[in-house]
Amino acid sequence: MNDSNVFFKLFTNCIFVEGEDKGVILDYQRQAIYEVDKNLSEILPFIEEYPLDELRTHSAELYKVIMDLETKELGFLTSTPELFPAISDEWDVPNYVNNAIIEYGLNSTYSLSGLLAQIRNLNCTNLVLIINGLTDDQSLKIFSQIKQLEFYNVDVWFYSEPPWRSLKKMIGQLNVINSIKIFNSKTRQKVYKNTSLKYFEYKSPRELCEKELCPIVLNYTFYCESLRFNNCLNRKIAINSFGEIKNCLYLEESFGNLSDNFIVDVIEKEDFKKMWYLTKDSVDTCKLCEYRYACLDCRAFTENPTNKYSKPLNCKKNDSI
Ligand code: SF4
Fold this sequence. Notes:
Blueprint: E1 7-10, E2 14-18, E3 23-27, E4 32-36, H1 40-49, H2 52-58, H3 60-71, E5 75-78, E6 99-105, H4 112-121, E7 126-132, H5 136-149, E8 153-158, H6 164-173, E9 177-183, E10 196-200, H7 205-211, H8 220-228, E11 236-239, E12 245-246, H9 263-266, H10 270-273
Parallel strand pairs: 6-7, 6-11, 7-8, 8-9, 9-10
Antiparallel strand pairs: 1-5, 2-3, 3-4, 11-12
Helix pairs in contact: 2-3, 4-5, 5-6
Iron/sulfur cluster is lined by residues 214, 280, 285-286, 289, 291-292, 295, 311-312, 315-317.
């Protein structure tokens, strides 16, 4: 290739994000994060605009940056840069509610089957069901309804010792179970078929959310969603064991009870949707962090619960990302 006709380009699956002190390149193909100089935001437009030989002649420093990025396989040289446009970062899904988290237990008085039907009518296909103290027979009834309603992705969490007979039967029959989480269980059994089963010493799912570090998610769809929405609460609905309808089980605010509200009416309320639009770009500290589009936000456990923009309590940044 003739260098006067050669340009550098970052791979389209490599996204640069600038932070206060440094930058990162999020590589969505190799699922890796590379720390880079924060000034790359200023340099990048130049090194992508001018041909390689011009950059080599006028700036040894810029040429070195290009060679470094190319060696790390984060970008490439091409004489036809126009053939490599950026990938769209639009985000949308056809369903108005994309995730439902339902807590149901011995103290629940609402109709779980009615709730599941309402949620499925909204085209919601992703379900987290948190079960507290039900018998095998009660659980089997629930699982067979989940099967009938054709949810695509189901995660089932148990507060304590699960009803093992129904659990094993359910895994045998339902191929939509992604994962099972069991809290505070004395016995540890195996389930079959590559189902992910995790045991936790935590007393409850709440304790898990309160104590675990905010996870880093390297997924381009997640990145696109994070640019415009809250990456935890967007298009989500949560119903606690008392039938209270919320954005998250562990946020205080309730938007009504199932006993006198239909889900479809609650999600129409502007007030209910306001958290969907709270991006990391408006959260204290996170807005200056280079991981902000890859870090799962948490609004329930924050450094200052009275401030809705407060930084999540369990920031992973000082750990090992
Ligand atoms: S929680 Fe920590 S790692 Fe995540 S975006 Fe905020 S400051 Fe960055």
